């Protein structure tokens, strides 16, 4: 308040003081000088006129030697208001005639008076007078001089009047200047603040700039500032990433210290634990889901609540009256809150919109997406149901909400509306297609708007981020900052970033089954000879996984290398998935038929080159298979990440085994030591499979060691930690922007 008053008075007093100084030292003296010169010139002219008029009568009366008449003449003449006195001096400089008013001291203006005259002005004890001398000549002969003395007090009066007008004029000027200064300061301050706010925060009222620079003068400066901040945050993040060995404990500390709280809410469709009603009672299963594999260890580390669809036959029996159950069953560390869906809701939301619409839309696997209005309605309804559950479960008004996957594209905005201060981190586990492909979705704008309710929107790769930014650019009026990868929409910022998902690296003290034993047991169980070469595929039975192409590659390899017939088999674990959908039923039939055909062609007796197991395997069973296999084959036609590749690497502490990996997985961008293949190119995959089976041990070790060190460091805690760190920074930035906004509002109020 004090500084505001000071600023205000400064803005007012400074112009006034300046004007006053100008007035005192320049204007008033000049005005005085000017008026004096004007009046002196006027008096000179008057004196000349009077002197001329007096010439004749004075000469006449001199000739008549009539001093009385001269005295009368002079007295009559000084009746003039301004003429003060007259005198006549003869040729010898003797004062002959004068009026009574004539100052004695002037005498005949001899003896140095001339030097003291300034513009005819003489300073006398009774005040200043103006004196002129006019020679009197008769017939060309000098006969003396007339001295006319004018009163100059009227000049003083006029000067004083003029000074008054000038001062008044300048006072008005000073006032106008002061007001102008205040107004200019006010408007330029508001302009600066508006521009700053506009540029840094973005504004829904100024949409459609699409990352192009503003015409505002603040834009280049703010752009530089923002870029600098972004570089700084990237550097800082790199520093944070490298300085942290990401562990569950680090994640807990991060939550506490950077996000000022430990309340984490996860939302996903698939639940981490499914209770099944069996003849022997309730049985708990872990689903085949990359999402669950990744997020579950994070939840164990952070506690909190996981909200998911209760889809198991025994789920209702396992929960309390608030639909909650503590998990993991063996060592409970967080809460699972189940949301119930009717058959119709599950059909429209999960099978329909999510898996017949969005799933094929986002995966380029040449299966046409199907969009139905009825499915969309259910999708909206169920998203709202889950958003309500988030609000119910939140203990504070600013929880950290981790939204998982394409089932909940609308939920971030719904939660944002109910809990504006929440930190919403959405992770899209599947690829994001290019804008043309995404444009097929009839509700594309709603989907993107829903996602932009997030604080952070994560994808596995920067390629998917780029596709998303381009899609927003194409279909929404939002402001996109490509250099910082942020989108401003409806006055809110969303950071779009790539966070490659990963797995929890096994603890060093976690007992692992012996590799040799695993190899022997698995081969025994499969009725295979001891040294049988074993390839392994682990997938959900999904058309995006490239299972058909994988079988074709096996067939091609056996064609090309017949010496492997009878010595190699591919064990394909295929967890049943979305089996009520036609597309999945057809796919299963095609997979089974192809396996049969190849087995018929190359199999003999008990030998089958393709061992297809369409059934669920738990994590422990899969781990044994990873340790028993010679090669793991991942040939997805399109996959956000594919965690099977990383799980296989984590399982191979013997540094043996080879990974054959599709170039169309997110994992291929990290695991360069795998044998990378194009699954559509069957011969290439066949060659890679053969190369893997015949790779020298030393090469296997080199490749495996390098990939293990990467997956160990780039684990799932780092995935979650980086998102949480970025969220914390964005939260901080939002806080600063809020402060700037409120500060700019209050300073404007003060100025006004
Ligand atoms: O890839 C997306 C994803 O959600 C994975 O996380 C997971 O493997 C799979 O889909 C799960 O599918 P669903 O929950 O339909 O069985």
TrEMBL record:
Signal peptide location: none
Xref: Pfam families: Glyco_transf_20
GO biological process, one term: trehalose biosynthetic process
Keyword Cell membrane attributed: no
Keyword terms, alphabetized: Membrane, Transmembrane, Transmembrane helix
InterPro entries named in the record: Glyco_trans_20 (IPR001830)
TM stretches of this protein: 12-31, 165-189
Keyword Metal-binding assigned: no
A molecular-function term among this protein's GO annotations: alpha,alpha-trehalose-phosphate synthase (UDP-forming) activity
Family stated for the protein in its record: Belongs to the glycosyltransferase 20 family.
PANTHER family (UniProt xref): BCDNA.GH08860, TREHALOSE-6-PHOSPHATE SYNTHASE
Protein's recorded name: Trehalose 6-phosphate synthase
High-level lineage: Bacteria, Pseudomonadati, Pseudomonadota, Betaproteobacteria, Burkholderiales
